[in-house]
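Folds vary. Our protein:
___
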Amino acid sequence: MVGTALGALIGMGGTLFAERARWRRNLGEQERGELRTAYARYLDAATLARDAISLASRNVDLEPGERAELARSAIHDNAVYARQYELELVAPAEVVTKAREATKALGVYRDAVMAGATYETAECAGARRAFRGVRQSTMDAMRVTLDRAR
């Protein structure tokens, strides 16, 4: 009788342990999916804003004030800050730091176009390259955290 009860307890413990391990694995996959989604949403917003700023910088037929207005609204209209804040809630610190740097570099690019720089000018090209470099660094950090979450 005692042996049967002990066997039943051991069997139940093993089952509970296996269920707990399965639950933790599923939770890890869900968290990784949430990170991937937040990363993609931020990168999408930043890329759309970059494209809008680039378009404004290329449109030399517009008056400088109109070009500046197109560039000014790019970050807001594409919800870059909202997506960055979303990252700040779920991403590791190293990704948040890189995303902040990318958003700042995007702002520098926007400000250069607002100040009158056009696509071909050295100031605009430098700001564009700086953003691309920081965005790539951000994507690299994102990949590392997604690989670590596996």
The mean pLDDT is 89. The chain has one domain: 35-148.
